[in-house]
């Protein structure tokens, strides 16, 4: 008798269940158990907070009042790009030919379905509509919505007087979709005018993606440096799997592709068996390889990394300076990881002036963790706040306060405003985007103006899968 209500409840659940596409029960066992891997997966796996905090609260100190906030954000969790998707598929094709896979590849015999059966979802954000598993908790769509609620929780006071405001996104579809899900989740109370800024070279400096307009930018100028990084960990992975499976002939490139496979499969379905193939040390070697390539291709190790990032840093500093006279107090911009890496190179938060070594992994002296800076859904906040008639600036990267160490004696380890301007000028000094990037050869847009002229220009570039 007592059991009756439970029987009824169970019957109701059984009736409800078939409306969800059924995969397999094992997802419930695995989902949630792989989050410790995310920091080692090159920022391709789902979002996570910056793993190292000194315990400084990200809320502005009690005695202070927030005056302005800026956000420079990455799109959320996504499928692989066309290029990476094709590489992962080629590696999978080699394994798919095994008649009876063994060892850590045994999962392939257990009803495994490859997560990118075709190219339909390449380049796209992961959403409720395109997820491969209905209980995937890591969707780019949901990440954007949750982020919006966290944003409102901390900063909604800044919207008291301005419920109509502009947001800014590049015209990459996944970037735009992230901004749109974020805007929708703010709720009906807010009236967002979405400004869609073209990534095209013709945008010159007036863009969230200034590296695209810099035709002389050479990402591989230091290829000879990181080419010296040991690939022994990749050989170990390939050899181990080849030994376990007769006829398998994985190369070091296949081993490298398996890390992307792992990360993007988690984005698409919430878990990935291929992630279990790696030993912890192999993940560390891979993660540092990603730091090296990011640092030398797009970060402080590239001769133009900081110069390109200075476009958005300079605009950010101008918004801070003009805070009192600007009605809008909240400046939300969405773009790609590379652009945030460029930007952070200009700000200098993760640049101690020492070039990253390639002959060893600097475990103890290691500031530049790319995946910690720009995981999927990355969020770099600039806070401007006032305490007892003094104004201060501070950065919060993925939920953790990252002080400008030499200028952090203000409340909450912030930098006093005039000192911050001196700091910013010293970082920007010597960078000249327009001349270094020869912008005038391809565009007449030599300044970033969209934050100031969006009301008349109404930026509305067409969305592109890129
Ligand atoms: C898989 O096997 C098929 C048929 O034997 C062969 O044509 C194909 O090249 C193999 N694929 C790979 C990636 O080895
Ligand atoms: C915004 O409104 C809330 C609730 O009405 C109020 O508590 C808060 O002081 C206001 N903040 C500002 C900056 O005006
Ligand atoms: C929403 O913002 C637009 C400007 O982007 C403005 O024209 C419109 O009147 C606003 N609507 C409401 C309901 O505030
Ligand atoms: C950039 O815009 C120009 C002019 O509209 C167009 O011809 C070109 O294809 C665009 N380039 C890209 C990469 O989309
Ligand atoms: C980029 O730099 C590398 C290394 O110096 C050089 O080999 C390559 O030609 C450069 N690429 C371009 C397009 O200048
Ligand atoms: C790569 O390593 C070799 C051997 O240690 C060394 O001679 C060479 O200078 C290194 N190249 C670069 C670009 O660091
Ligand atoms: C896997 O192991 C079984 C049993 O040892 C063996 O028969 C089979 O050939 C192995 N498969 C591969 C691909 O090596
Ligand atoms: C494995 O691949 C390498 C390089 O592609 C090739 O030289 C070798 O013959 C292949 N081995 C087998 C067993 O297919
Ligand atoms: C802040 O500045 C105003 C005007 O300069 C002054 O009247 C006020 O006393 C100051 N308040 C504090 C807490 O210093
Ligand atoms: C900029 O750099 C030049 C040369 O290194 C130096 O003389 C000047 O004082 C610097 N200016 C600022 C504002 O840091
Ligand atoms: C750039 O050129 C276009 C068309 O040639 C013109 O409409 C636009 O006003 C120019 N922009 C600037 C900033 O000069
Ligand atoms: C990826 O492929 C799709 C479909 O073929 C194409 O529309 C898109 O432009 C491609 N994107 C890139 C970045 O190559």
Automatic annotation (TrEMBL):
Disulfide bonds join 64-387, 262-275, 407-415. Its EC number is 3.1.3.2. Keywords: Disulfide bond, Glycoprotein, Hydrolase, Signal. PROSITE patterns: HIS_ACID_PHOSPHAT_2. It catalyses: a phosphate monoester + H2O = an alcohol + phosphate. SUPFAM superfamilies: Phosphoglycerate mutase-like. It comes from the Eukaryota. CDD domains: HP_HAP_like. Belongs to the histidine acid phosphatase family. This is acid phosphatase. It comes from Lachancea fermentati.
